[in-house]
Fold:
Amino acid sequence: MSLTARLLAGGWEAVNLKKGNVKVGDNIVNRNDLFGTLVKITKKGNYLVQFDIDWDRPEDKPVKFAADEFESFFLVDKR
Structure:
């Protein structure tokens, strides 16, 4: 069973922007199994994600994702 399947079975959900199931501060994971935190939603509708592997390197800034990419590529922790 893949990590994505285990996460979905354990209470994680696909990001659904219309449903509004994600907010700043939520734990998220992308389909490449990289965990992180949603740190900001910009006025232009972009989503900034700080991946866990980057927390100890302050020079690595949060990664920006467009809304459609964010919704199709991430899961949010709803346990």
